[in-house]
Amino acid sequence: MNCIITGGCGFVGSNLAAYLMEKGGQVTLFDNLARHGASTNLSWLRSQGEVSFIHGDVRNLSDVDALVRNLKPQVVFHLAGQVAMTTSMQNPRNDFEINVLGSINVLEAVRQHCPEAGIVYASSNKVYGNLSHLDLVEGPTRYHPKNNNFGVDETAAIEFHTPYGCSKGAADQYMLDYARGFGLNTIVLRHSTIYGGRQFATYDQGWVGWFCRQALESAADSERELFTISGDGKQVRDLLHVSDAVRCYVAAFEHVKQARGEAFNIGGGIDNSMSLLELFHVLEDQLDVKLKYRRLPWRQSDQKFFVADNRKAERLLDWSPKVTRDEGINSVIDWERSQRS
Ligand SMILES: NC(=O)c1ccc[n+]([C@@H]2O[C@H](COP(=O)([O-])OP(=O)(O)OC[C@H]3O[C@@H](n4cnc5c(N)ncnc54)[C@H](O)[C@@H]3O)[C@@H](O)[C@H]2O)c1
Prior knowledge:
By secondary structure, this protein is α/β, with parallel strands linked by helices. It has helices at residues 11-22, 38-48, 61-71, 85-90, 92-113, 162-182, 207-220, 242-254, 256-259, 276-287, 311-317, 325-340, and strands at 2-6, 26-31, 52-55, 75-78, 118-124, 136-138, 143-145, 185-191, 193-195, 227-230, 236-241, 262-265, 273-275, 293-296, 305-306.
């Protein structure tokens, strides 16, 4: 496979690149290395085998145009992005330029130079707003919906909240419209929480890794400052291990002819769902630590419950997640430990 991965030095991109390199793919990474950890991921990928790297910015049409014109890839995995809701509130224009303009640049370059290529886009559960229509019950450790055992499917109403929701949502809709209007082979994958190794989690993005790190630091120093959580900790997400996400990107490309122009909710599913409080209980048990934290107000438009209903992806992409949340959390603890040492 001759592929381009925009954002290829990020968390998901570097895991996808490593997988494709191992399978003998011809992989080109396109990244501006803005994310903390991206340079480290690039060095790691270079140590794994043959990979091309182009330093460039998706906001810059001439960078993207030259990239696609020169390589004429079979597929572009478009993962480069401004990835956090919080930072989109601080700088909406920057968020817009990276996520919307950057995505248009990718679409236009493919339309001009290799319209047969696939484009698989990393979208977000944030395209569904705060999902206020869900009838939720508040349990002792989590919110859960009445009468819904499968999670949220793709028929949920699109509703963009926050600049990040608007920019990811706009790009998501452009991707679908370029399939409709220009016949491009685009597929949209809507995720909530992806977790695993090579993620350099921050306070703003990557909550599983972030809280595993807080727990390890609490275990090492019981006097450390309290860490913070937003909301009451009962908000639920389904955890998608990055190795399952990688398999999904590959499955999307393999099924692009049947699934072009479609959006898919992709997550760990109901069996791998978890609230913050439930993660804390697991970490307290595993690391023999008492977690002490302080509560902040809810983040803007935070969903109290999002679990992806994966059934459309099972049907059309022949994909379902395999890694259990317990296996996955152990792998993140190992990754965070390796970073501390
Ligand atoms: N990780 C998750 O839980 C999650 C959830 C939903 C959606 N997504 C989406 O998946 C994609 C990948 O996420 P990730 O967790 O790997 O993020 P990441 O921040 O680790 O990776 C993004 C990469 O894009 C690069 N980048 C940023 N701006 C750029 C620009 N202007 N030009 C070129 N490169 C640029 C960064 O340097 C980084 O290497 C993103 O689009 C994100 O919105 C991720």
